[in-house]
Amino acid sequence: MPITRRRLLTTTLSAAAVSTGAAGPALAAPPRLTLPEPTGPYPIGTVPLHLVDRSRPDPFTGEPGHRELMAAAWYPARDTGSHRRASWMDPAVLRRYLADAGYDPDVVRAPLTAGRLGAPVRRAAHRLPLIVFSHGAGDHRGSNTIMVQELASHGYAVVAIDHLGDAYSRLPDGRVVVPTEESLYPEDFALDVRFVLDRLGDLPAGLAGAVDPHRVGMAGWSKGATATARVMLADRRVRAGLAIDGPMLPLMEGRIDRPFMMMTAEFTKATEPAVARFWSSQLTGWRLDVRADGAVHSSYNDLQVLMPQLARVAGMTDEELHGWIGTLAPARAVRIDRAYPLAFFDEHLRGRPQRLLDGPSRKFPEVRYLR
Asked: Where in the numbering of this chain does the Serine aminopeptidase S33 domain appear (predicted)?
């Protein structure tokens, strides 16, 4: 079962709710979680996107012509000083998120990202390669912000999607939307992504003319990883795919002859028949599977950094914390989350060969290369 943020809150914040005590004296502002800064040479801009697919019905209400999505575009920017930093999650969404789990909605504040809201895009001689990101079940588009803003700081445009119905998000009219009891299928995620690709010409903030539609990649975590495979099976516009610990279920048909990389933790070829089948019979092009020793399902996303901070608030034991982040040190996980996706897309979208992808690296002794 993929780890969701609802499970995260249910297991970790209960201790925080008990320790702070609703009946106690008024407390200072709750602590703000933090994310590491990206390492690339460019400052980052970001802008929210509201999209409506008129060709599809809403998957839950059946309302025709009204599949609604929220997303965010991230990109290398210029003149960012006057633009405020974007939050990892909208405060109203975070409060609902916490309240839905039955806990104090003010126990923590969301981290601020490196993205500057509405900053103008940095123009360059060549258009920007594009990555589309798809989150996991019951999650949100900011779940892999460490990876997303790292790519943007190195000259990529990234569009991260909230798959409404299976995501926490906020619509432009102020409505906070949450996951429904009946979650979406990976194919629904894949259709969302293909619709976003159809709308690249409508990107705001000068991005439409800055993005290269012929250099498109996709990355996804958990259910979004399975959706990445499904998109590549159906849509040749996506030239390279990165699946981050995806279960690859339901089973798929067809073959992928373009570069495909897996970063596995719990959904491995050795333990999951669907993953083994996908690897052995459906990947016919360049392929690589890497796995970090001590990694668990959430180790390749922002939870690896945020969980230890929540643990300090919640008073978790080391054993409880390791149940969520494994034994892979958060600082090492951050380096992996930055280095491997960037190397993969640099090689396969920019044509820059990367030694990191050739085999075991002294810089990452904990990473296994599984061919």
From this structure: 130-268
